[in-house]
Design goal:
The protein is an alpha+beta fold. It is 42% helix and 18% strand.
Length: 320
Protein backbone atom coordinates (compact mmCIF):
# COMPACT_ATOMS: atom_id res chain seq x y z
CA UNK A 1 0.00 0.00 0.00
CA UNK A 2 1.06 3.64 -0.40
CA UNK A 3 1.51 4.09 3.40
CA UNK A 4 3.82 1.08 3.53
CA UNK A 5 5.87 2.34 0.60
CA UNK A 6 5.99 5.87 2.04
CA UNK A 7 7.13 4.58 5.43
CA UNK A 8 9.85 2.42 3.87
CA UNK A 9 11.03 5.28 1.66
CA UNK A 10 11.07 7.61 4.67
CA UNK A 11 13.24 5.23 6.67
CA UNK A 12 15.53 4.60 3.71
CA UNK A 13 15.85 8.36 3.22
CA UNK A 14 16.70 8.78 6.90
CA UNK A 15 19.46 6.17 6.63
CA UNK A 16 20.90 7.82 3.52
CA UNK A 17 20.78 11.18 5.32
CA UNK A 18 22.75 9.71 8.21
CA UNK A 19 25.36 8.33 5.82
CA UNK A 20 25.61 11.75 4.19
CA UNK A 21 26.11 13.35 7.61
CA UNK A 22 28.92 10.92 8.40
CA UNK A 23 30.52 11.68 5.04
CA UNK A 24 30.35 15.43 5.67
CA UNK A 25 31.82 15.02 9.15
CA UNK A 26 34.68 12.99 7.68
CA UNK A 27 35.38 15.71 5.13
CA UNK A 28 35.35 18.38 7.85
CA UNK A 29 37.74 16.35 10.00
CA UNK A 30 40.07 15.85 7.06
CA UNK A 31 40.03 19.59 6.31
CA UNK A 32 40.73 20.47 9.95
CA UNK A 33 43.67 18.06 10.08
CA UNK A 34 45.12 19.47 6.88
CA UNK A 35 44.90 23.00 8.30
CA UNK A 36 46.46 22.07 11.64
CA UNK A 37 48.97 19.44 10.61
CA UNK A 38 49.54 20.25 6.99
CA UNK A 39 53.03 21.07 5.55
CA UNK A 40 54.21 24.48 6.78
CA UNK A 41 57.35 26.07 5.27
CA UNK A 42 60.02 25.73 7.94
CA UNK A 43 63.77 25.30 8.29
CA UNK A 44 64.48 21.57 8.79
CA UNK A 45 66.80 20.69 11.66
CA UNK A 46 66.95 16.93 10.95
CA UNK A 47 66.82 14.87 7.82
CA UNK A 48 64.38 12.00 7.55
CA UNK A 49 67.28 9.53 7.59
CA UNK A 50 68.39 10.73 11.02
CA UNK A 51 71.55 12.65 10.03
CA UNK A 52 72.03 15.98 11.74
CA UNK A 53 71.47 19.04 9.66
CA UNK A 54 71.92 21.94 12.00
CA UNK A 55 71.98 25.61 11.40
CA UNK A 56 75.77 25.48 11.71
CA UNK A 57 76.07 24.16 8.17
CA UNK A 58 74.24 27.20 6.90
CA UNK A 59 76.37 29.47 9.12
CA UNK A 60 79.51 28.00 7.64
CA UNK A 61 78.28 28.82 4.17
CA UNK A 62 77.35 32.32 5.23
CA UNK A 63 80.72 32.82 6.91
CA UNK A 64 82.54 32.16 3.66
CA UNK A 65 83.22 35.23 1.66
CA UNK A 66 80.94 37.72 3.29
CA UNK A 67 79.91 40.85 1.43
CA UNK A 68 80.47 39.76 -2.20
CA UNK A 69 77.54 39.15 -4.53
CA UNK A 70 79.06 35.85 -5.67
CA UNK A 71 79.23 34.59 -2.15
CA UNK A 72 75.60 35.69 -1.60
CA UNK A 73 74.49 33.71 -4.61
CA UNK A 74 76.49 30.72 -3.43
CA UNK A 75 75.01 30.96 0.02
CA UNK A 76 71.51 31.26 -1.40
CA UNK A 77 71.98 28.34 -3.74
CA UNK A 78 73.40 26.18 -0.95
CA UNK A 79 70.55 27.01 1.41
CA UNK A 80 67.89 26.32 -1.24
CA UNK A 81 69.54 23.05 -2.21
CA UNK A 82 69.73 21.92 1.40
CA UNK A 83 66.08 22.88 1.96
CA UNK A 84 65.00 21.00 -1.17
CA UNK A 85 66.86 17.85 -0.11
CA UNK A 86 65.46 17.97 3.40
CA UNK A 87 61.87 18.65 2.29
CA UNK A 88 62.05 15.91 -0.33
CA UNK A 89 63.30 13.38 2.16
CA UNK A 90 60.65 14.42 4.68
CA UNK A 91 57.86 14.16 2.08
CA UNK A 92 59.05 10.70 1.00
CA UNK A 93 59.20 9.57 4.60
CA UNK A 94 55.75 10.92 5.37
CA UNK A 95 54.35 9.27 2.27
CA UNK A 96 55.88 5.93 3.22
CA UNK A 97 54.52 6.30 6.75
CA UNK A 98 51.04 7.08 5.41
CA UNK A 99 51.19 4.04 3.13
CA UNK A 100 52.23 1.86 6.05
CA UNK A 101 49.42 3.23 8.19
CA UNK A 102 46.93 2.62 5.38
CA UNK A 103 48.11 -0.96 4.99
CA UNK A 104 47.85 -1.50 8.73
CA UNK A 105 44.35 0.04 8.82
CA UNK A 106 43.03 -1.85 5.76
CA UNK A 107 40.27 -4.32 6.63
CA UNK A 108 39.41 -7.28 4.42
CA UNK A 109 35.76 -7.85 3.47
CA UNK A 110 35.71 -11.05 5.53
CA UNK A 111 37.00 -9.21 8.60
CA UNK A 112 34.43 -6.44 8.08
CA UNK A 113 31.61 -8.98 7.87
CA UNK A 114 32.80 -10.74 11.02
CA UNK A 115 33.07 -7.43 12.86
CA UNK A 116 29.61 -6.28 11.76
CA UNK A 117 28.12 -9.66 12.69
CA UNK A 118 29.68 -9.45 16.15
CA UNK A 119 28.31 -5.93 16.62
CA UNK A 120 24.91 -7.03 15.36
CA UNK A 121 24.79 -9.87 17.88
CA UNK A 122 25.44 -7.32 20.62
CA UNK A 123 22.67 -5.13 19.22
CA UNK A 124 25.08 -2.42 18.13
CA UNK A 125 26.00 -0.70 14.88
CA UNK A 126 24.12 0.76 11.93
CA UNK A 127 22.85 -2.61 10.73
CA UNK A 128 21.28 -3.36 14.12
CA UNK A 129 19.70 0.10 14.24
CA UNK A 130 18.29 -0.30 10.74
CA UNK A 131 16.84 -3.74 11.56
CA UNK A 132 15.30 -2.45 14.79
CA UNK A 133 13.40 0.16 12.81
CA UNK A 134 12.67 -1.79 9.62
CA UNK A 135 11.68 -5.28 10.83
CA UNK A 136 8.80 -4.25 13.16
CA UNK A 137 7.43 -1.86 10.55
CA UNK A 138 7.66 -4.50 7.82
CA UNK A 139 6.05 -7.14 10.05
CA UNK A 140 3.24 -4.73 10.97
CA UNK A 141 2.32 -3.95 7.37
CA UNK A 142 2.76 -7.58 6.33
CA UNK A 143 0.27 -8.64 9.02
CA UNK A 144 -2.18 -5.99 7.78
CA UNK A 145 -1.79 -7.25 4.22
CA UNK A 146 -2.28 -10.89 5.15
CA UNK A 147 -5.16 -10.52 7.59
CA UNK A 148 -6.95 -7.23 6.99
CA UNK A 149 -6.55 -5.48 3.64
CA UNK A 150 -4.36 -5.72 0.60
CA UNK A 151 -3.86 -3.71 -2.59
CA UNK A 152 -4.81 -5.04 -6.02
CA UNK A 153 -4.55 -3.66 -9.51
CA UNK A 154 -6.72 -4.25 -12.55
CA UNK A 155 -4.95 -5.95 -15.50
CA UNK A 156 -7.90 -6.17 -17.96
CA UNK A 157 -11.12 -4.56 -19.14
CA UNK A 158 -13.48 -7.24 -17.78
CA UNK A 159 -14.82 -4.82 -15.12
CA UNK A 160 -14.95 -1.73 -17.36
CA UNK A 161 -16.31 0.94 -16.92
CA UNK A 162 -16.38 0.50 -13.13
CA UNK A 163 -12.68 -0.39 -13.09
CA UNK A 164 -10.18 0.40 -15.82
CA UNK A 165 -6.81 -1.11 -16.64
CA UNK A 166 -4.15 -0.25 -14.01
CA UNK A 167 -6.69 1.02 -11.48
CA UNK A 168 -5.56 0.18 -7.96
CA UNK A 169 -7.98 -0.76 -5.21
CA UNK A 170 -8.10 -1.87 -1.59
CA UNK A 171 -9.52 -5.33 -0.86
CA UNK A 172 -10.71 -5.96 2.70
CA UNK A 173 -10.44 -9.54 3.96
CA UNK A 174 -12.36 -9.47 7.25
CA UNK A 175 -16.05 -9.44 6.35
CA UNK A 176 -15.92 -12.88 4.69
CA UNK A 177 -15.43 -14.41 8.13
CA UNK A 178 -18.61 -13.02 9.68
CA UNK A 179 -21.15 -12.78 6.83
CA UNK A 180 -21.88 -14.28 3.41
CA UNK A 181 -21.22 -12.34 0.18
CA UNK A 182 -23.84 -9.86 -0.94
CA UNK A 183 -25.30 -9.16 -4.36
CA UNK A 184 -23.55 -6.26 -6.04
CA UNK A 185 -20.25 -6.67 -4.18
CA UNK A 186 -17.04 -6.72 -6.21
CA UNK A 187 -14.98 -9.69 -5.02
CA UNK A 188 -11.44 -10.89 -5.60
CA UNK A 189 -11.13 -14.66 -5.69
CA UNK A 190 -9.08 -17.69 -6.64
CA UNK A 191 -10.55 -19.17 -9.83
CA UNK A 192 -12.34 -22.53 -9.46
CA UNK A 193 -11.14 -25.72 -11.12
CA UNK A 194 -13.46 -25.22 -14.11
CA UNK A 195 -11.71 -21.95 -14.94
CA UNK A 196 -8.32 -23.63 -15.32
CA UNK A 197 -9.80 -26.56 -17.20
CA UNK A 198 -11.64 -24.41 -19.76
CA UNK A 199 -8.75 -21.95 -20.19
CA UNK A 200 -6.32 -24.88 -20.59
CA UNK A 201 -3.83 -23.25 -18.24
CA UNK A 202 -1.85 -24.44 -15.27
CA UNK A 203 -2.57 -22.86 -11.90
CA UNK A 204 -0.28 -19.84 -11.53
CA UNK A 205 -1.68 -18.05 -8.49
CA UNK A 206 -3.68 -15.56 -10.56
CA UNK A 207 -6.68 -13.98 -8.84
CA UNK A 208 -9.77 -12.66 -10.62
CA UNK A 209 -12.13 -9.80 -9.85
CA UNK A 210 -15.85 -9.86 -10.70
CA UNK A 211 -19.19 -8.66 -9.35
CA UNK A 212 -21.49 -10.94 -7.38
CA UNK A 213 -24.88 -10.92 -9.13
CA UNK A 214 -26.51 -13.85 -7.33
CA UNK A 215 -25.88 -15.72 -4.09
CA UNK A 216 -26.73 -19.18 -2.80
CA UNK A 217 -30.46 -19.89 -3.16
CA UNK A 218 -30.97 -17.37 -5.99
CA UNK A 219 -32.11 -18.21 -9.51
CA UNK A 220 -30.14 -16.34 -12.15
CA UNK A 221 -31.01 -15.88 -15.81
CA UNK A 222 -29.86 -13.78 -18.78
CA UNK A 223 -32.62 -13.10 -21.29
CA UNK A 224 -32.55 -10.57 -24.11
CA UNK A 225 -29.19 -9.35 -22.90
CA UNK A 226 -30.65 -8.42 -19.49
CA UNK A 227 -29.99 -10.01 -16.10
CA UNK A 228 -32.83 -11.51 -14.07
CA UNK A 229 -32.43 -12.67 -10.47
CA UNK A 230 -35.32 -14.63 -8.94
CA UNK A 231 -37.39 -13.61 -11.96
CA UNK A 232 -36.84 -9.87 -11.41
CA UNK A 233 -35.12 -7.68 -13.98
CA UNK A 234 -32.03 -6.06 -12.47
CA UNK A 235 -31.22 -2.38 -12.87
CA UNK A 236 -27.58 -2.52 -13.99
CA UNK A 237 -26.58 1.01 -14.88
CA UNK A 238 -22.94 0.09 -14.18
CA UNK A 239 -22.51 -2.38 -17.08
CA UNK A 240 -20.70 -1.41 -20.27
CA UNK A 241 -23.27 -2.96 -22.61
CA UNK A 242 -25.98 -5.58 -22.71
CA UNK A 243 -24.90 -9.21 -22.79
CA UNK A 244 -24.68 -10.75 -26.24
CA UNK A 245 -25.55 -14.20 -24.88
CA UNK A 246 -28.49 -16.03 -23.32
CA UNK A 247 -28.36 -17.94 -20.06
CA UNK A 248 -31.17 -20.30 -19.00
CA UNK A 249 -32.41 -20.11 -15.41
CA UNK A 250 -29.83 -21.56 -13.00
CA UNK A 251 -30.25 -22.18 -9.28
CA UNK A 252 -27.17 -21.07 -7.33
CA UNK A 253 -26.29 -23.80 -4.81
CA UNK A 254 -25.75 -22.92 -1.12
CA UNK A 255 -22.15 -21.94 -0.33
CA UNK A 256 -21.62 -20.56 -3.85
CA UNK A 257 -22.15 -17.31 -5.75
CA UNK A 258 -22.62 -16.34 -9.39
CA UNK A 259 -20.23 -13.64 -10.65
CA UNK A 260 -20.15 -11.59 -13.86
CA UNK A 261 -17.88 -8.86 -15.18
CA UNK A 262 -19.36 -5.39 -15.73
CA UNK A 263 -18.02 -5.55 -19.29
CA UNK A 264 -20.35 -8.46 -20.01
CA UNK A 265 -19.11 -9.40 -23.47
CA UNK A 266 -15.41 -9.18 -22.56
CA UNK A 267 -15.41 -11.18 -19.34
CA UNK A 268 -14.54 -14.83 -18.70
CA UNK A 269 -16.86 -15.39 -15.75
CA UNK A 270 -19.57 -17.60 -14.29
CA UNK A 271 -21.60 -17.71 -17.51
CA UNK A 272 -18.66 -19.73 -18.90
CA UNK A 273 -17.28 -21.76 -15.98
CA UNK A 274 -20.20 -21.88 -13.54
CA UNK A 275 -20.60 -21.16 -9.85
CA UNK A 276 -17.89 -19.80 -7.58
CA UNK A 277 -17.45 -21.50 -4.18
CA UNK A 278 -17.45 -18.99 -1.33
CA UNK A 279 -14.26 -20.54 0.05
CA UNK A 280 -12.41 -19.20 -3.02
CA UNK A 281 -13.17 -15.58 -2.16
CA UNK A 282 -10.13 -13.63 -0.95
CA UNK A 283 -11.98 -10.45 -0.08
CA UNK A 284 -14.20 -7.74 -1.48
CA UNK A 285 -13.10 -4.46 -3.04
CA UNK A 286 -14.08 -1.40 -1.02
CA UNK A 287 -12.36 1.57 -2.64
CA UNK A 288 -10.45 2.47 -5.78
CA UNK A 289 -7.62 4.81 -4.77
CA UNK A 290 -5.51 5.18 -7.92
CA UNK A 291 -5.33 7.11 -10.18
CA UNK A 292 -6.43 10.12 -8.11
CA UNK A 293 -8.98 11.16 -10.70
CA UNK A 294 -10.82 7.83 -10.24
CA UNK A 295 -10.92 7.65 -6.45
CA UNK A 296 -14.30 6.23 -5.42
CA UNK A 297 -16.02 3.77 -3.15
CA UNK A 298 -17.06 0.44 -4.65
CA UNK A 299 -19.84 -0.60 -2.27
CA UNK A 300 -22.57 1.60 -3.76
CA UNK A 301 -24.23 -1.13 -5.80
CA UNK A 302 -24.20 -3.61 -2.91
CA UNK A 303 -25.74 -1.01 -0.61
CA UNK A 304 -28.42 -0.19 -3.15
CA UNK A 305 -29.24 -3.87 -3.59
CA UNK A 306 -29.18 -4.53 0.15
CA UNK A 307 -32.43 -6.10 1.16
CA UNK A 308 -33.88 -9.55 1.60
CA UNK A 309 -31.10 -12.02 0.93
CA UNK A 310 -31.68 -15.76 0.59
CA UNK A 311 -31.11 -17.70 3.81
CA UNK A 312 -27.66 -19.27 3.56
CA UNK A 313 -27.42 -20.34 7.17
CA UNK A 314 -27.79 -23.95 6.11
CA UNK A 315 -24.43 -23.80 4.33
CA UNK A 316 -21.10 -23.16 6.06
CA UNK A 317 -19.78 -19.66 5.47
CA UNK A 318 -16.45 -20.89 4.14
CA UNK A 319 -16.43 -24.49 3.08
CA UNK A 320 -13.14 -26.32 3.25
Amino acid sequence: PPRERASFISRLRRMVFRLAQLFILALEAQLACSLVLGPVPRLPLRRAGGDSCTLASFSMVEGGQGGSSDSSEVRKSAILAELARAEGAESDGARRADDADAEEGAVSPQAWVRDEWARLRRGEGEVAEFLKEFVPTFAFFLAIRIALVEPRYIPSLSMYPTLDINDQLAVEKVSKWNRPPRRGEIVVFDPPDAFWRLSQRERDGEALIKRVVAVGGDTVEVRGGRLYVNGRLQDESYVNERAAYELPPLAVPPGSVFVLGDNRNQSFDSHYWGFLPQRNIIGHAVVSYWPPGRIKGLDGVAERLAGPQPDQASAPLLER
